[in-house]
Amino acid sequence: MVIKRDGRKETFDRSKLMRGLLTATVKRNVHIDTLEALISGIESELRDRGVTEISSQDLGMMVLQRLVDVDKVAYVRFASVYRDFKDLDEFHEELRSLMQ
Description:
Number of helices: 5
Helix content: 55-70%
Structural class: mainly alpha
Largest sheet: 3 strands, mixed
Number of domains: 1
Distance between the termini: 35 Å
Number of strands: 3
């Protein structure tokens, strides 16, 4: 189960996560098999840890931790949604940390 920001619980939907990743990687040279493996890795980690519920923020962070190694532009695109930057300074700080 995924716990949304407003407290609602939704069943984990692999296809919904894939849509988000496809949006983040549009016009990037990222093969769909790479995204499938990324999602499978997250599912495996959660199963291995015995996690049955995860917040959408924690799930997003798990994606970002893997996506940064796949494509940095896709990382920034995905982060802009999941990190919910409040202003340009927060976005700029994320870019700065990514570049280091």
